[in-house]
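Students often ask why we bother encoding 3D structure as a string. The short answer is that it lets us treat folding as translation between two languages. Here is a chain of 323 residues written in the first language.
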Amino acid sequence: KVVAYARISNEDQSNFSISGQVEKITEYCYRNNYDLVDTFIDEGQSAKDFDRKAWKRLENFLKLNHKHIDYFVVLKYDRFSRNLQQALTVIQRFEEDYDIKILSINEPIAIPPENPFYFQMRTTMLMQAQVERMVIKDRTVFGINRAKKEGRWMGKAPFGYRNERDNSGKPIITVDYYEAALVKMIFELYLQNYSYAEIKRILVPKGFNKKSKDAIFRILSNYAYIGHIKVKLEDKTESYVPGLHESIIEEDVFYRVQALIKREGKEVNKYNDIAYLKSSIICPVCAKPLTCGKSKGRTKYYWYYECATHRKSYNAEKANALF
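And here it is in the second language, the structure alphabet:
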């Protein structure tokens, strides 16, 4: 009885399609009179580790059924893993704990598995698979950085842009004019001394859909909005090059915002959506800006504003309602 596994990643340089792998494995089992119990398939999954959807289902299946399985079959060892250390650990578990032999049908080893040279040959094949992954990664990183130096945005488009392809099929980003209007509003509101939380609360009803706490800060700090792209230089330092995409924000506006962010320093609690008046309202006694904090009730946390000098606190929800 046999279980089979097929895998291909988005960056895969091989010619082994999923259908091709399944077809060859099925033919192999038929020729050898093996009973193919199930085939687990991972599409778009890297072999750098075993954090893969179908692989996890396979592991769970074998935990329950390993007494009834004799062989685990793959087309090549690089379909199984491109991480030598992790692969050897899994092989040890399969073969010693589960008593399941692992077979690579395109890389047959013509010596008994008990022979020490069998371990050596299989380890060499797995090592070659890891080296190939390292080469692919290096080639991919080089290609991405070269494209960035040409002014191309690589990856998901920032808010305000959308991913497209140019006439040559290469990736570019183009302006999403509705989102771009919101980006401009973010910069304008920040220069008017609105906090991150206040800006977000104003923009959400208008279609702003970024949920992370630092979404506003990320937009305000992103050089893509003035048409620049970050690249890595040969000495491992970072720099910016002109991008092929259209800018949304004027450079003088962008750099005024950067100066303001730098002057304000680290803004931790400005993200708070509840105590959003922090630093905007003052103590009635000493006129210092109030800070914020929270205390735990029976079922939830309650936010409050507090004067650091007089330790006088005010319920945040009530203060917001009065405001």
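Translate back mentally: The chain has ten helices and eleven strands. Keep this in mind for the problem set.
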